[in-house]
Write a structure and sequence with these properties.
globular, single chain, 7 helices, 245 residues
């Protein structure tokens, strides 16, 4: 019988990313692509925060007094900026090696992030104002169960923000054919057949009781690097919240 508490974790995927833990914070290392993606993801997240909780658009801490959960946090590339934005942050990852690297990186900076090598399904805490999971759902064993677990952690008036590659011929070319050969992405990182289209992810969110309220493509411009775009053929971000809220 499958252990439903850990059913969404793929052990091979966890081991693959755990092997990258020591190099996670090297902007030219195995996680270089994530370092390049992070600024544009943060721009999208900041815009979603400002729409949901209007205040001073120039505030450095728009998440002050809010709780954030980052699932599949790796070594903390997103969790740390969320903490600097004022949130009380919990970061979960399937690989203990990543959690150790995240703790070691955050401690000297005085960032009190609650990092746990814990499946989201087994965490008792709920009521998070912001739930994020970036480039994770394409690596889990059961995407529907994973989305349900994320939805169960979200406060009634909270926001969930996800990003993931689209399943298109262009994403196969960009992220696997090129990305895993000369683009700096470690070989074996992606399985194109596990990529999820925006319609498929929207359906999973709706089945979990959520509604998509915003979306954006994420593309690469040789002149400016990664940028938000109407073109979601390679990668995209979605914002969702509980229905009727």
């Amino acid at each position: 019988m499958t252990d439903t508490a850990t059913a969404t974790i793929d052990p091979k995927e966890a081991a693959h990313f755990g092997e990258m833990a020591a190099d996670w914070w090297n902007p030219d290392g195995s996680s270089a692509m994530l370092h390049k993606l992070n600024p544009v993801r943060l721009r999208y997240i900041r815009a979603a925060i400002d729409r949901r909780w209007p205040g001073d658009a120039h505030s450095f801490r728009p998440l002050a007094g809010k709780r954030a959960l980052d699932v599949g946090c790796g070594a903390g590339l997103l969790a740390e900026p969320l903490a600097r934005l004022g949130a009380t942050v919990t970061g979960l990852d399937a690989a203990p090696e990543n959690i150790a690297a995240a703790q070691a990186h955050a401690a000297p900076q005085g960032l009190a992030i609650d990092y746990r090598a814990t499946p989201v399904e087994t965490m008792a805490d709920t009521g998070f104002d912001l739930v994020t999971s970036m480039e994770v759902i394409e690596h889990v064993a059961d995407p529907a169960a994973f989305v349900r677990a994320l939805a169960g952690k979200l406060a009634p008036d909270g926001l969930m923000i996800l990003s993931t590659p689209n399943r298109t011929p262009l994403s196969r070319l960009a992220m696997i054919t090129i990305g895993e050969s000369i683009g700096g992405i470690p070989k074996g990182t992606h399985d194109w057949h596990k990529f999820i289209t925006p319609d498929e992810l929207t359906a999973l969110l709706e089945q979990a009781g959520l509604a998509v309220i915003d979306s954006s493509g994420l593309t690469f411009d040789p002149r400016t690097g990664f940028t938000l775009s109407a073109n979601d053929a390679i990668n995209y971000l979605l914002t969702a919240r509980h229905r009727d809220r």
